[in-house]
Amino acid sequence: MGILEVKGVNKRFGGLKALNDVNLDIQEGSVHAIIGPNGAGKSTLLNCFVGRLEPDTGSVMFDGQSLLGIQPYRINQIGVSRVFQTPEIFADLKLLENVMIPAFARRDGSFKVNGWKSVGEEREIRDEAMTMLAELGMEAKADHVAGQLSRGDKRRLELAMCLVQKPKLLLLDEPTAGMARADTNNTIDLLKQIAKRGITMVVIEHDMHVVFSLADRISVLAQGTVIVEDVPGNIKGNPKVQEAYLGGAHL
Amino acid sequence: MLGLNNKDLMLFAIVIAITLLAPVILNPFPVESDLAQFNAGYPDLMQRFVIFGIFAIGFNILFGLTGYLSFGHAAFLGVGSYAGVWMMKLLTMNVVPAIIVSVIFAGLFSLLVGFISLRRSGIYFSILTLAFAQMSFSLAYSVLTPITNGETGLQLSLNDPRILGVSQTADGSIPMTNFFGIAMRDGFELSMGGWLFTFNAGYYLCAAVMLIAFYVSIRIFRSPFGVMLKAVKSNQQRMLYTGLNSRPYTLAAFVISGMYAGLAGGLMVAMDPLAGAERMQWTASGEVVLMTILGGTGTLIGPVLGSGLIKYLENIFSKINDNILHQWFSFLPDGLEDFVVAIVYPFIGKGWHLTLGIVFMLVVIFLPGGIVEGGQRIGRLFRRKPPEDRNNTTTAAAPSAAE
């Protein structure tokens, strides 16, 4: 049994059937990529995992718990972190604060009025955040305002914010979208390191280079349905995949 | 010391010193001089400086940290005022219970208003708070007249059933508000050369409360809770996917700032036991927004400076009339004198709002960080820091004192 189990998920937007009986079984510790042409329903599917969208039918189970009908912040509290297509960070705050906030969220839960102690007195959280920044090579910038970072560094910071929570499952929505080649390669290296820590990752991606260098397993989504699920080596030659992507032409 | 870092401690010490010495600092001109009208060191105005300072400090905890712009905070000040007067009517003329009850009632009312208004953000939140405040204002004038005494305003009378005190003094007048026996209007005057300084008990009570309120706000700004409130302003989406529920954070900030407003309302009636509904009108809510923005939103000291400036303009500029102007410009030839007076006249007296409006526009356009930013720029000019150091002042871990 996998850590994330998706069974018979359907989602309609008016007349459009965005997801049609999607089944997925994501194994703990694996990197699972979901690919597919534009409009295949990848983002819709991801949004069903994090509480942003509610499927019409079907179930999404994480670690034995249903993720349906609960608020995104609760889903995060049980161990699911998410990276956005455009890095979502606290742009007005310093890098250190950016990483301390999720660390506080893990320790104190979704709400706590901790209004008397100064941030500087929270040594443990501070050290933890500093260590995480150091691991991702950003400790020198700890006092910089996050909004000033480059696109690649923003992604790096966002990953630091997710990792400091020690998530069981990390969801990545096109982690290299809009990045220059060098930034993309750095990000892939970083994600490989993260994968080595044993964190389960689900990656949605357009860029085949990224997918094939990262994923243990790949699910191909087309018109709201998983048409193939296999290891990367078998995906490229699969005629169904070629048809989905290129309308029948051969790769 | 006091759980503050060095810069905050320094700022706090300066604020303490200025507040305690205000009766002297604000009276720089001898009584007989022409400039005496610019003196602001009289008790009534000084009390207003610190009371509105408290109001703005509290407002800044909501607006400065979370970015939620409330247009209805005067309602909490009004509720606090009414609650305070009622305590004096029913219980005792000691101001302490009145102030405490003011804070409690304002807190409860802001909990209700906040709970409903915070379902929306941005302009819709502002409109909801405005609607609540205007509703409170109208109710105070109409159906709630038994509690608020309508247009006359709620005041003490000679037959109040004061449980811990007397309804009237031996000579048949209304007893005075006091702090454990020290009457709020007590004080002493100190005459030095041409100068006259008034040290007033009421002012020092307000000043002490303001200093405590200021200290609490520094603690909140520097705490993890304060960081969470800044996170609300910065990116609610990220907060939501970081396991944080932003609603209770904003509600807590809303209630805290409502309690500050109630505290200000309670102190107002402690100084002058009269509460009127006009205190809740939208103009009063707008005023605290102006104070905060003028001083510097999200900075510690900004709101205090902003409220000081506005109250100074309101009380000092509005007193200048055309006679005084003619005196000032009497050295000019007659025709020119009249011309200059005609030009300046719209900006003074009843026209002080025009001056305020222009100052406000200039600040928003040229100094978006308010007076505090102005001060920082001037400070930098004098220090002539190297450029890379300058960057650090805005990004460094140790926040600048005024930040």
Mind explaining what this structure looks like?
- The complex is a heterodimer of chains A (251) and B (403).
- By secondary structure, chain A is of the alpha/beta class.
- Chain A has a domain at 1-79 and 202-251: Rossmann fold (3-Layer(aba) Sandwich).
- Helices cover 35% and strands 24% of the residues of chain A.
- Chain A has helices at 42-49, 72-77, 95-108, 123-135, 151-163, 181-196, 208-214, 232-235, 239-246; strands spanning 4-13, 16-26, 31-35, 57-62, 65-66, 80-83, 169-173, 200-204, 217-222, 225-230.
- In chain A, the strands form two sheets. A six-stranded mixed beta sheet of chain A has the order 6-7-8-3-9-10, sandwiched between helices. Chain A has a four-stranded antiparallel beta sheet with strand order 2-1-4-5, with helices on one face.
- In chain A, a hairpin with a 2-residue loop joins β1 (4-13) and β2 (16-26).
- In chain A, α3 (95-108) crosses α4 (123-135), α3 runs parallel beside α5 and α5 (151-163) runs parallel beside α6 (181-196).
- Chain A is globular and about 60 Å long.
- The two termini of chain A are 34 Å apart.
- The mean pLDDT of chain A is 90.
- With 403 residues, chain B is mainly alpha-helical.
- Chain B has a domain at 6-282: ABC transporter involved in vitamin B12 uptake, BtuC (Orthogonal Bundle), CATH 1.10.3470.
- In chain B, the strands form three sheets. Chain B has a two-stranded antiparallel sheet with strand order 1-6.
- Chain B is globular.
